[in-house]
Amino acid sequence: MANYITESLYYIILIVPRLNAKELRKSKPTNEDLAIVKRNPIYFVLDNIIDTYNIGSLFRLADSVAATKMYLCGKMEYPPSSRIHKAAVGTEAWVPWEKEKSVIKLIKRLRDKGIQIIAVEQHPQATSYKLLATKINLPVAIVVGNETDGISKEVLDEVDIIVELPMYGINRSFNVWGSAAVICYKILEFLPITNR
C-alpha cells in the first residue's frame, strides 16, 4: 500500500500538470499531453443542455474527476464556443468528447460495451444517491438532462438506475452540474486512487 501511495504521489507531482485557470485557458494539449491523464471509468452524457455555463461547468467537472469521455447530445451548443470555453476554463480541450445526435442510440451502444447507465433526475422510482454503493457497477455513464424539462421519459426508460438528490427546500431540483458533481464524487469513493 505504501508503494502504491508513493507511486501515485510521484505520478501526480511529476507527470500530471496542474494548471491554474489562466494556464488552462491558454493551453492547447497535444495527444501526448492527453495520454498522460489516467482516466476513471466515468462517462458523461449531456442530454440537450441549454445553458453554456452548465456545459462548461460539466467539462470542468469531467476534468476534475478524470472522466473517460463526455458525450454532447441533441440541440445544444458545442465547442469551440467562447461561452463554453469561459465556463470550462479551457478544460474542454483536456476532456475527450463527442457530438451525438441520439441519446437513446448512444445509451444502447454504451450498454453494449458493459457500461452501466445512471440518470440523475427527480423521479418517483429514483434511488437516493446515498444508496448508490449498493447498485453501482463500473464503468458508469452519468446522464444529465435539460435544465427546464430534465431527462425525457424515453431516455429514463432506457437507463439502468435513476438516482436523485433529496431536496429539502421549496426548489424542485438542484443545478445540473452540481447534481452531477455530487454523484461523481460518490462514485469516486468506490475507485482506487488514480489522479488524486
TrEMBL record:
<dbReference type="GO" id="GO:0003723">
    <property type="term" value="F:RNA binding"/>
</dbReference>
<protein>
    <recommendedName>
        <fullName>tRNA/rRNA methyltransferase SpoU type domain-containing protein</fullName>
    </recommendedName>
</protein>
<dbReference type="GO" id="GO:0032259">
    <property type="term" value="P:methylation"/>
</dbReference>
<dbReference type="InterPro" id="IPR029028">
    <property type="entry name" value="Alpha/beta_knot_MTases"/>
</dbReference>
<dbReference type="GO" id="GO:0006396">
    <property type="term" value="P:RNA processing"/>
</dbReference>
<keyword id="KW-0808">Transferase</keyword>
<dbReference type="Pfam" id="PF00588">
    <property type="entry name" value="SpoU_methylase"/>
</dbReference>
<dbReference type="GO" id="GO:0008173">
    <property type="term" value="F:RNA methyltransferase activity"/>
</dbReference>
<dbReference type="GO" id="GO:0005829">
    <property type="term" value="C:cytosol"/>
</dbReference>
<keyword id="KW-0489">Methyltransferase</keyword>
<dbReference type="InterPro" id="IPR029026">
    <property type="entry name" value="tRNA_m1G_MTases_N"/>
</dbReference>
<dbReference type="InterPro" id="IPR004441">
    <property type="entry name" value="rRNA_MeTrfase_TrmH"/>
</dbReference>
<feature type="domain" description="tRNA/rRNA methyltransferase SpoU type">
    <location>
        <begin position="42"/>
        <end position="185"/>
    </location>
</feature>
<dbReference type="InterPro" id="IPR001537">
    <property type="entry name" value="SpoU_MeTrfase"/>
</dbReference>
